[in-house]
Amino acid sequence: MEKRVMTDSKRRKGLTVASALLGGVLMLSACSGGGGDNPKGDDEGDGSSQSKVDEAAAKKTSEAQIKITPKDGSDNASINSAAAVTVTKGTLSEVTMKTAAGAAVEGEISADKKSWKPSGQLERATAYKIAATAEDSAGRAAHENASFTTVSPANSFIGNFTPEDGSTVGVGMPVSINFDKAITNKADVQKGITVSSTSGQEVVGHWFSANRLDFRPEEYWKGNSTVTLKLNLDGVEGANGVYGVQQKTVTFKIGRNQVSIVDAKTKTMKVTQDGKTIKTIPISAGSPENKTYQGQMVISEKFKETRMNGATVGFTDDDGKGEYDIKDVPHAMRLSNSGTFIHGNYWAAKSIFGSVNTSHGCVGLSDTKGANDTKSEGGWFFSNSIVGDVVDVRNTGDKTIAPDNGLNGWNLDWAAWKAGSAA
To answer: CA-CA distance, 21 to 152, in Å (whole number)?
Structure first.
């Protein structure tokens, strides 16, 4: 009896295990999803089913493909042309661009709704975020987002140029560009800059230093012509790791051809237009102790009145004070960076003009205090001169002014000028 009970017990345990195993098989079969479709019960059924799921999902996904540039996470991005959104197999429905601080950046979707770009120039060293939405032909939406940072001032350079866009200047005005970083890749930078004239004159660049590049033709600009400066420096590497950011076109007009010839020996100045003398003015140039530079000088600035202090240009007395300090010099026009001016003079005797050279190096014209007398010699010349006019100073007995002292590159002959080109 004891043995039989043990046998029944084993039998019941065996049935229980068999049931569990069978249940496990049934559960596995049910989880496999095979059923009648997959009598083999292998992995082939899983792949087929998943493909159908993927196919169904794909049918619900937009075909529109959005591309944002620069790519997400970029740094040193251009402030001019880097930011853009384009779409294929669809049209753009919405694009927003903001700084990391949340300031909105205006932009415009193209007429065909295939592209978008900002309306203006971006800021340097600024993080931006772009979010774009597009729809395909079935109206299904696609979305794309990107963030990038524009080039920093430390890793970029700009060129400050003269003359200004839209200005009218004299025939001697060069295009002068002063870079805020030293340029070592001069050839690449110069190739990114073009200067042309409606006169057809050949225009060549000359490097005065790693920071200054001037352009001029062989002879003075033709009167009444138009000059165009194009700065295509965006992305140009000016030095190791330092890139240009400017993409700009500047145009300016050349006025009438006026060149004034100062003769320190005869103490006169002949004002010529198109080679013809229109007025002769008595002058007083630098004294024998303080001779005026010789050479072709270009008027770079005009001041109805300005202060002139000898201490700023090295003329001091024993106490270190300026030998002169005149706070209201009338009708002053700059000829050099080192302090050479042609200006009105009301404090000297009228008799010196045309008879004796008495200045500290400037060219003086008879004038009246207050700079309101347009009939005085100084007032007339000021009213009839523009920035870029040439003042050609001769017979002073001094050296020729350095070509980079002001806008005075005309004092280099053409061969020497072209030798300074890197292009």
So the answer is: 70
Tell me which of 206, 331, 343, 360 is the catalytic residue: 343
Q: What is the pLDDT of residues 183-227, one digit of tens each?
A: 999 999 999 999 999 999 999 999 999 999 999 999 999 999 999
C-alpha 202/C-alpha 97 separation (Å) is 44
**Which of 396, 413, 360, 404 lies closest to 261 in space, CA to CA?**
396
- Buried-state track 53-87, b at ≥16 Cβ within 10 A, e below 16: eeeeeeeeebebebebbbeeeeebbbbbebbbbbb
Residue of 206, 331, 360, 362 marked catalytic: 362
Topology alike, domains 155-255 and 258-408: no
Would the CA dihedral through 391, 392, 395, 397 be positive or negative?
positive
343 is catalytic: yes
* Fold (topology level) of 155-255: Immunoglobulin-like (2.60.40)
Alpha helices, H only, 33-125: 44-59
For the cut 60, the answer to whether the pLDDT of residue 119 exceeds it is yes
Q: What is the CATH architecture assignment of 65-151?
A: Sandwich (2.60)
- pTM as predicted: 0.77
